[in-house]
Write a structure and sequence with these properties.
By secondary structure, the protein is an alpha+beta fold. The chain has two domains: 151 residues, Regulatory protein AraC (Jelly Rolls, Sandwich); 111 residues, Homeodomain-like (Arc Repressor Mutant, subunit A). It contains twelve helices and nine strands. A hairpin with a 2-residue loop joins strand 4 and strand 5. The protein is globular, with a radius of gyration of 19 Å.
Length: 285
């Protein structure tokens, strides 16, 4: 995928009739949002539930799995996705790492009427400019998508004051760690590898990441691996052995132990739960 393609903001209007196709939203390479316009919806991420009503915005981060749990019959929402590298670089250029990590674990914001209007206006502008855009027009789209990222962040911080700080060495280390993790987590789960990538000692590296994000490097690595494992386990035609190999585990049994340690159940039990959830997702409130 080239850089120009990465600048797109993929948009979709959904309601109760077709939200089922977003039952499990796993986009390791994208950040996204759901803007609830009418009705209500409950989303799950990291074993937590988030209830959204009309006028509320949910930001789902890359390297995560968002699950549609419940929704009302009158649901109407806008769903959007943008490339991780582009949206992350846009946001980190105007916000410190603590704010971005806070969003990762507190993804819902209640918009004011004015914030809602501005975000809806930008969504409309992106849609209009994406149709038949020329080379220069695509750059206009890129600028609008970046403006949208800024608008979302501005609305979020206005309603969730986190205490912005000047970008520090720890911010830069954490950002570089996320980029390195994105490119390597399927093959590399050793903290020492990422420390070497950033030319830091493992102890100092672990201290910086924990101080800046509230989680250890090992916890971040496991979050990425488990999110990818869950995505693959949701594809029922792929065997667990194939998934273990794709994630560079020496054996299926070692993959099973790793998955159970961090997910709380075996891969086969998780796969069975996915089947049950897929049958019940359309049982609306």
């Amino acid at each position: 995928m080239n850089r120009e393609e990465n600048l797109e903001l993929e948009l979709d209007e959904v309601d109760a009739a077709d939200i089922g196709r977003y039952h499990r939203v796993v986009h390791l390479e994208k950040n996204g949002f759901l803007l609830c316009k009418q009705g209500r919806i409950t989303l799950g991420m990291d074993d937590k539930e988030f209830d959204l009503h009309a006028g509320e915005l949910y930001i789902y981060p890359a390297f995560s799995q968002t699950v549609v749990l419940r929704y009302s019959n009158d649901l109407k929402a806008t769903i959007g996705m943008a490339d991780f590298d582009f949206s992350f670089s846009s946001l980190e250029s105007v916000s410190d790492t603590r704010s971005l990590v806070y969003i990762r674990f507190n993804p819902v914001v209640r918009l004011t009427d004015e914030q809602y209007r501005r975000i809806e206006e930008l969504i409309g502008l992106v849609r209009q400019r994406q149709v038949g855009a020329s080379v220069i027009g695509r750059q206009v789209v890129a600028a609008l998508v970046q403006a949208f990222c800024f608008e979302v962040l501005d609305a979020y911080i206005a309603n969730h004051p986190v205490g912005q700080e000047k970008t520090t060495h720890r911010d830069n280390v954490f950002r570089k760690f996320l980029v390195a993790l994105y490119g390597n987590f399927r093959m590399r789960r050793n903290v020492g590898f990422y420390a070497r990538e950033l030319c830091l000692s493992p102890r100092y590296f672990a201290t910086l990441i924990r101080e800046r994000s509230g989680k250890t490097p090992a916890e971040w690595i496991s979050m990425f691996v488990i999110a990818e494992a869950k995505r693959r386990l949701s594809e029922l035609q792929v065997s667990i052995k194939e998934i273990a190999m794709a994630l560079n585990f020496p054996s299926q049994s070692l993959f099973g132990r790793y998955f159970k340690l961090y997910a709380g159940m075996s891969p086969s039990d998780y796969r069975a739960s996915v089947g049950v959830a897929n049958k019940s997702v359309n049982d609306n409130e």
